[in-house]
Amino acid sequence: MSPRDIWKRSARYAKSSEFDDLTDTGEIPVCRPKEDLDPPGRLGRPSRDLLGAGSLVNVGLAVSSIFVSLFFYVSSGSITNMALFAFGRYGGLMAMSLVVAAAFPNTSPRRLFRVGVGLTAMFYLSLIVLGKAATPLALPLGLFNGAASGVYWFGVNTLIYDVVEGEERGRYYGLNFAFLNVTNVVGPFGAGLLIAKVGGVTGYFAVFAASTVAFATAFVVSRRLADTAGIGGVPIREALRLPWATPEWGRMWTVVALRGFKQSAGSLGLVILVALATTSSTAQGEFAAATALAAVGTSILAGKVSPDRRGKVMWGGAGAFVLSTGLLLHAGLAAILTYGIVTGLVYPAVMVPVSSVILEAMDTDPKAGERRGGYVLSREIAVNVGRLLAIGLLLVLLHFVAARDAVLVTVGSAALLQLAVAGLSARTSVRARAYS
């Protein structure tokens, strides 16, 4: 058992709530840890509660995330406004992660989760209230949305580390990504139809209202989440030092940054490509739905890959992802849609195993339990540095080449970088297994 698991179990068993399942036999009650009550292969209750609350958040994001960016384009006709909103969002997310670590060290991850969800609901309400007046406020609204997300992600990532046991990780991430892709099928497709039916900017506001309801429900449900200790004092310089001081984490820091680059390049770039190919909101929903549907089954399969096979699977997924990017060289919605389906099938082979490897890299530090806040902060810095670099590259290219060419260069760069993600992750996975 790794030091991280010893720390987790001792911290959780110290709480009386972990022993509240009693046998009702008429004899002296016998206290047993909740983990002992869950059959093998099934997630424990803390992990199931976190998966459920997080899935509700994913519903809210799936319904509206692509349409928030598209709203700024439709209401202004400017791709730059879309990019400015994204830049503000990721900048605000990283800045708020620093604020949380410095100003709220003793706040429980569950409270951070709930506050982040509540602030995100307020963001969507503000879009509805502002209406078209929100268009020139793309950058500040992006900062607000990013700040809300920063609180949420700091909370949920810490909770994942705290409550998901080592043997649950593959199953948890496999189910999480599968549920995420299911919501990404239903959410965008339904939202696109709703916008088309209602018509105009009003249709976007109807979608934002639906997201607000999802976030409000997640806020209520999240009361059931496990209440773990705050992150404690996390000097920002320590979080910045970790990649240099811990070689395994240095590799993972780079992996997280490169995944962030791919995430923002793809999420914004594909919205732009579909918008250039067709002005239909329904087409945006159909593309997102097709991509997500293709990823449902492979996400579950990727979660079952044994550690000794991860390297080959990640290399295969990254290589297929690079090759599929060539489909975007063909103009037209059909080629874009084919790209979405193919990448939806192959990218979970990279994404799911890497998520487990990231936590395993943390396990190689004997003081990971004490430093978990520093690792979470370091991770947030990495992913948002990558996201900002991708948006920054796109903004620069938009000044020199046509919008479609700017997107192709950015998305193509992100695809090539996934080969580095596979290579670095495979090396860390081998070293982490040797450590355990």
Note the topology.
Blueprint: H1 3-13, E1 21-22, E2 31-32, H2 45-74, H3 79-103, H4 109-130, H5 138-163, H6 169-198, H7 200-221, H8 236-245, H9 247-277, H10 281-302, H11 310-324, H12 333-346, H13 348-363, H14 372-398, H15 403-435
Antiparallel strand pairs: 1-2
Helix pairs in contact: 2-3, 2-5, 2-6, 2-7, 3-5, 3-14, 4-5, 4-7, 5-14, 6-7, 6-10, 6-13, 8-9, 8-14, 9-13, 9-14, 9-15, 10-12, 10-13, 11-12, 11-13, 11-15, 13-15, 14-15
Tell me what you see in this structure:
The chain has 436 residues and is mainly alpha-helical. It has a single domain, classed as Up-down Bundle (Growth Hormone, Chain: A). Helices cover 77% and strands 1% of the residues. The protein has 15 helices and two strands. It has helices at residues 3-13, 45-74, 79-103, 109-130, 138-163, 169-198, 200-221, 236-245, 247-277, 281-302, 310-324, 333-346, 348-363, 372-398, 403-435, and strands at residues 21-22, 31-32. It has a two-stranded antiparallel ribbon. Helix 6 packs across helix 13 (348-363) and helix 14 (372-398) runs antiparallel to helix 15 (403-435). The radius of gyration is 21 Å and the shape is globular. Residues 9-37 have low confidence and may be disordered.
